Amino acid sequence: MVKFLINRPIAVFLSFVGILFFSALAIKELPVSLLPGIEVPSVAIKVDYPNNPARIIENSVLNPIRSELNSLNNLKSIESTAGSETGIVKLQFNYGTRMDLAYVEINEKIDRLTESLPRDMDRPRIIRINTSDIPIIRLQLLPKNQADFIEVSELAEKVLKKRIEQLPGISIVDINGFRDQYISINPNREKLQALQLSEGQIDQVLKSANQELGQLSVKDGQYRYYVRMANRLDDLDEIRNLPLITRDGNVIALQSVADISYQQEKVQSYHLFGETEGLVITVHKQNSAKMTELVPMVYEAVELFKEDYPKVDFELTQDQSSLLNAGIDNLRTSLIYGGIFAFAVLFLFMGNVRMPIIMGITLPVSLIISFLLFYAVGLSINIISLSGLALGLGMLIDNAIIVIDNITRKRKDGLGIIEACIQGVNEVMAPLISSMLTTLAVFVPLVFLNGLSGALFYDQAVSVAIILGTSLMVAFVLLPLLYRIFFQNVKKEIKEDSLVFKTILSAYKGFYKLLWKFRAISFVILLLLIPLTYVTINQIEKAGLPDIEKTETLLSIVWNEPIAAEASKDRIRNLLNELNTEAESESDIGLKQFILSVDEGSVENAEIYFKFNSKTDKSATEKWLLSYFEKRHPNANINIEDAPNAFDQIFTTEGSFFSAKWKTLGNNELLTSADYQELSNEVKAISSTPPLQGKGFIYEDALEASIDSEKLSVYGISEGQFKSALSKALDGYLVTEIRRFGEVTPVRIQRPEADLRQQLERVTVMGKQNQEYALSNFVTISFSSNEKNITADRSSVYQSMEWEELSSEDIEALTVELPKVASARGLTVDFDGTYFEDKENLSQMAFILMISVALLYFILAAQFESLIQPLIVIFTLPLGILGALIVLQLTGGTLNVMSAIGIIVMLGIMVNDAILKIDTINRFAAKISPTTSADYKTQLAAAIAKTGEIRLKPILMTSITTILALLPVVFSSGLGADLQRPLVYAVIGGLTIGTFTALYFVPLAYWFVSKKK
């Protein structure tokens, strides 16, 4: 095939021009995003039920929802948390579930359940969780002094949201911190009593005035007309002039006995930018949109907002496109420096100007064609796929160097230009294809990891496969054609080896002779390094993601006091005022209003985001915050952590390391704080690490109202009548709603602000002989300690003890002894936590690695037609891993996702070198025709030595160009460099020892495992 193509240069060039043209079109159409559009198999159901405690929300709302949803297909787990006024149900499905169908099924079940849920509660919100739900940027709206907050809220909801949504590529625009208003009717109790009017009459007049009579049809001859009859309120003046009829028959206006005005709804959510109260708009992109184009459009739109709405200040924060830009910059850097260093190394080793030019053409051509294949398989340009391309660049250079070197060697053997190109490519085609397959044998099985990790590896594995396949096509087709064009008129002998390489070759021969002289000892020493790899793996620190030098902090606060959101806002402002820092800060206080928020939420919770100018400022502020809360708010629970970026939000696993879930038998009764203390003491005797209180074991003070039913009977008041009056006694109640053009304005009877006792004294209930009695006569108020949250799983309500760290001995002791403790108390206990998930993932990873090694072995066995020689390649892998781990330890790195990817790529390059070397030795060994056994050993030793000299140049050039191409990342700064640095260290360390292994371990191993005739 190579002969057929190389004799048709015009057709080949035109084909490549056509492919490059379509590749350029594909690049324009490829979506650009931060992360792949992964369908996360999770759904959250949020419930808002104002003025209701956790127990009512659990019993009346969450329990029926869990029971209804338990029969969902592919449901892996269901967890719910009921809090004060809010509740959330989190559904986890098996990975691979069609989430669009699951979403429809959940909605249908919730619709069927609506009739059995409280009628005064809004329909539960069902939220799909997706990687694209992470906002790409946040827009701060800060009203100036003369601006009305209600007007700014309406501006954000009705104007700005719609203008941003009109930008191409925007999916959702979410708002937090906005304000609503309602019509407040505050009756004057003294005037009502003087006119012998009741509050119920006001209620009845408002409902009657806002009642729709429906549609009537009137027949007129042959025609029938539909007449819409309505008696609806439209504005505040109409309400003020509504007529009330006194007992004397006089008609008075409602405004004579009540204060009527617009009031701001009860605020349970605040947003601060710095110390300034405002709103925040989060912008989310569509999966197919290009983030690099979308974010600049948002900036342009905001500049127009500044001109159009001068009463509001606008600021853009938390731009997530910086992470993507860092990845693109790293790829660009790798390409530029990779090309430069490839040129330099080729000049250094070959001293020929034409070969670097050939390399300079094939590298970008391979990369551009790769994007066409991206488009064909539906990949987007994102951090994961770009890292796959960056990883493939080293192997791309590897293939080009090997083909050029082999063609040059054939020319040196005296073959013509065309024949040298044909034989040079054909000779290395099989081992290069085999090396690509062995690399994919390591990568592809990772796609089958459970959950999100497998989905992320899919993008990376496919991108690596694409870049490798493209580089092979270019190396086998375009590169020999270019070689023919550049060298067809060169009559003199091509200068193959430079003075530098001859010096290196001489040093290699000297060291090789020394090792070969003591080959048994040398081979044993190298074999003894393999167990050292296992020891190093156990010793090195493990982590999920590399440590990224962040200048952003997130402070999460739970006040552990029943305070209002406004009080929480005041505390946050005092904190920021005393902090007096130049850092940019954002605060979300109370219940978040974001549609896509899946936080459990509480009015007494708050989050503060800080963006510092330097890491020094960040560290100093975090210490100050710890000291501040110890002195000012010792009861508050705080958590100070690096502000999560998009990677953290996707990779972070919720839940504690290890937890014990306590459940009562046969009912949903909860254990008391006294029960917890007794259990905790028993657990402390079992585990050396004391447990932390889980959600179900956290309590808070609450007011408890007891109704005197006997006294109600004496005064002739029914309990239902009394409870109805009591429900309206505190904050007022909704009477009706004014609906106009899609807007809904509530109309409420409002109570004046007062303490609980005064409110109960002001509201009356009718008894015998139409006598009114104050509610306070029948209610006893006391303080009690109630559970703050009620948690439940698929089976029942539970209360948990949690551990963030535990030794394996403690885990074994707890899993054995706690069931005994539970049984003695009439309880059951289940165990949960990331420990079990991590254990399952490690088992699965070990199994997948075994599959990868098996695939590697079978591919090599087919390549070499030997069952022994593949073991040589496999035993080189631990040595390369050892080199990677040593460099990671020396640089203070960890074994994490990125360094593991670097190790995999490094192994691909190592395998490539080993395969080519063994393949070359086999070809030389096949030509040996010995007369005696000693003669065979002599000829085999010569063949091994000759192979080492022939393959020295491509092995060294491949390793050096790959290392030098990645080296700039080590000296770069920023988020992208921090993310890629462990990968680079792993590749550099692995190739450093891996090159030595390919040069010396492979020939020694071949000698000892080959049959001596």
From TrEMBL:
Q: Which Pfam families match?
A: ACR_tran
Transmembrane intervals: 331-350, 357-377, 383-407, 428-449, 461-483, 518-537, 845-864, 871-891, 897-916, 955-977, 983-1009
Alphabetically sorted, this entry's keywords are: Membrane, Transmembrane, Transmembrane helix
Q: Which SUPFAM superfamilies match?
A: Multidrug efflux transporter AcrB pore domain, PN1, PN2, PC1 and PC2 subdomains, Multidrug efflux transporter AcrB TolC docking domain, DN and DC subdomains, Multidrug efflux transporter AcrB transmembrane domain
- Gene Ontology terms, cellular component aspect? plasma membrane
Per its UniProt record, what InterPro entries does this chain match?
Answer: AcrB_DN_DC_subdom (IPR027463), Acrflvin-R (IPR001036)
On the tree of life, the source organism's domain of life is: Bacteria
| Record GO terms (molecular function) | xenobiotic transmembrane transporter activity
The record's Gene3D superfamilies line, in alphabetical order, gives: Multidrug efflux transporter AcrB pore domain (3.30.70.1440), Multidrug efflux transporter AcrB pore domain like (3.30.70.1320), Multidrug efflux transporter AcrB TolC docking domain, DN and DC subdomains (3.30.2090.10), Multidrug efflux transporter AcrB transmembrane domain (1.20.1640.10)
Which PANTHER family does the UniProt record give? Answer: PTHR32063, SWARMING MOTILITY PROTEIN SWRC
The protein's name: Cation transporter
Q: What is the lineage of its organism?
A: Bacteria, Pseudomonadati, Bacteroidota, Cytophagia, Cytophagales
